[in-house]
Every structure is written in structure tokens, then in C-alpha cells.
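Hi, here's the filled form for the chain we discussed.

Project: internal
Contact: R.S.
Residues: 231
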Amino acid sequence: MWFEAQSETTALRLIIFDMDGTLIDTVGLIVATVGEAFTALGETAPTEQAVRAISGITLDQAIAILAPHADQKRVGELSKSYLDHYHPRASREGEPLFTGAVEAIDRLRATPGNILAVATGKGYQSAIALLDRHGIRGHFHSVQTPDHNRGKPDPQMIETAMTKAGATKAETVMIGDTTTDMRMARAAGVPAIGVAWGYHERAALRKEGADIVIESFDDLDHAIDKLLRNA
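And the returned structure, exactly as it came back:
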């Protein structure tokens, strides 16, 4: 495969993408689904701001924050309600890629030495199904999720992707839209690129350690080159 035929003289660069809010435009879908899930069980729907704030962590962690009064059993019920509402809504409405995402992925794949990976808070099967739906699953060397790693901001997803790719910290960059992504990158000791079109504000991304915040996918290649110029 493309990522297995690296030249000995080609610099290796591992480029790790978050999914929701970075590659995939899920803000409206997730906010609406959380509202439906809570309302269906007689709970007050969280605000959009509250839902945006918890993006990137595992589902049970997110529900526990959105419903601080809930015990473990109730968190489980709300999580199940979310999944029961999410899958039908996602099938109806779709989860589109952000404008420029495919083109950016194609450009990066065409550069010798680049290896692409995913680190997402989604479950593995959901992540794979979504990548398949967009025809880009094969573009990524590995897909890291909380099903086989500790959830963000623990650095294990990045570390696993690095191990599978044979990459060092100096050869790796994380791209995401949330403070959780930035904190995960910092914990892993790798540089981080924040994207301005996702769940969290630019200032928050910078505060949590984004080395660069980009405004569009057109800016991504230069940002990666700047951070991994010595890789």
C-alpha cells in the first residue's frame, strides 16, 4: 500500500486528524441528537454551548458532564438514548466532510513520506463506517478510537498511531478543533494545529497549546511544513 513503500531517504511525517469538527461537519447533528436523547428521557436538553464544550471525549464522559446530577446507571441510559437517536438521524441527514477536506487529504497523501492517521472520540465501528461512507478509509494508516485506547486527552491514541507508523514525536503532528485535541497533543509531546471551523474558539485552542490555528484547509500544508520542517 502507499504508506508501506517509503524511501529510505524520504523524511517520515505522521499527520493525525481528529474527525468530528475537523474533517467531518457534525456540529448541528450532534447538538440536535443530544437534545433529542435528553428530551426523550425527560431531561432538559443541554445548550449548544454546553454540547460544543464536551466535544472530543468519550460518550459516557460527555453525558456525565452534560447531566451532572446523573448516577452511573442514568448516564448509561442517556448514552444509549443518544446512540438510538444518533444513527437514524445520521443516516437521514448525513455527516458531510468540510469543504476542502478531501483535497487536503489527497495533497498530503501525494507527498512522499507522509503517513495519515485518525484519532477520534467516536467508537471504532462508527468511525470506520463514516470513513467508508466518504470513500477515504484507505487513506489512513490507522484509525485510533477509545475502543482500543484511553480516551482524549490521554495521549494513548497518538502514541498508538506513532508506534504503528514507526514515527517519533518530532515527526508527528496532531490536527484538531477542540481543546481536548490540543491537550492530547501536548501530553504526547507533539505539535498541534487547531482548526478554526470546529467546536471550540480560536482563543481557547491557543490557550490549550495550539502551535498554529488555521482558517481553512488551504492553510494546512504550510502549517505542517512549518512545524515538521526538521522531520
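Let me know if anything looks off before we file it.
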